[in-house]
Design brief:
Length: 168
C-alpha cells in the first residue's frame, strides 16, 4: 500500500512538473534551502518543511520560491485527497518535488542526448538512473513538519555567494 501511494505521488509530481518545467529551478532551490537549515550542534532545522512559513519564505535567500511552493501546495491538496493514512507532510512533499525535478532534468537530458527521440531517451534514462540510486530517496519518506520557521542565517544568499578561487 505504501509503495502504491508513493508511486501515485511520483506520477502526480512528474506530470505536474512536466506541465510547468519553468518551475524546476524553484523546486530544486526550495528543497535545498529547506534542507540546508540543519544545524548539527543543536540538531535542529533540516528538511522539515519550515520553508513554507511566510517568515522563512520571505527571506532574501528564498526570493522567488513562492511559485514553487504554490505548485507544491496544489499537488499536496491532491495527494491529501487520495491518502488513506492522513495528509503528506510538507517536509516530504518538498523533498519529493526536488527529487522529481532532478529526475525531470535528467530525463530531459537523456532525450536530448538521443537527438530528441523520447523513446530512446526514456530507455537511456532507465538504463542509467531510474532504478537503484533513485530508490535511496524513498528511505527518508515519513519526515515530520516543523511547527515554526527555522532560524535565520543558515542558508547563504546564492546571488551573493563568492567564488572559492577568489577567497583563497
Amino acid at each position: 500500500q505504501r509503495s502504491e501511494f508513493q508511486s501515485k505521488i511520483k506520477i502526480l509530481l512528474s506530470t505536474t512538473i512536466k506541465a510547468k518545467p519553468e518551475l524546476v529551478p524553484s523546486l530544486l532551490k526550495l528543497a535545498l534551502n529547506d534542507a540546508m537549515t540543519y544545524d548539527k550542534a543543536t540538531k535542529s532545522g533540516g528538511a522539515n518543511g519550515s520553508i513554507r512559513f511566510s517568515s522563512e519564505l520571505s527571506r532574501a535567500e528564498n526570493e522567488g520560491l513562492s511559485d514553487g511552493l504554490s505548485l507544491i501546495e496544489e499537488v499536496k491538496k491532491e495527494i491529501d485527497s487520495i491518502s488513506k493514512g492522513g495528509p503528506i507532510s510538507y517536509a516530504d512533499i518538498i523533498q519529493l518535488a526536488g527529487q522529481s525535478a532532478v529526475k525531470f532534468t535528467y530525463l530531459a537530458s537523456a532525450i536530448r542526448k538521443c537527438g530528441g527521440n523520447e523513446e530512446k531517451g526514456n530507455l537511456l534514462y532507465t538504463a542509467y538512473g531510474s532504478a537503484g540510486q533513485w530508490g535511496l530517496f524513498d528511505r527518508n519518506f515519513g519526515r515530520s513538519d516543523a511547527t515554526e520557521a527555522d532560524p535565520e542565517g543558515r542558508v547563504p544568499q546564492w546571488g551573493k555567494a563568492t567564488d572559492r578561487k577568489s577567497v583563497v
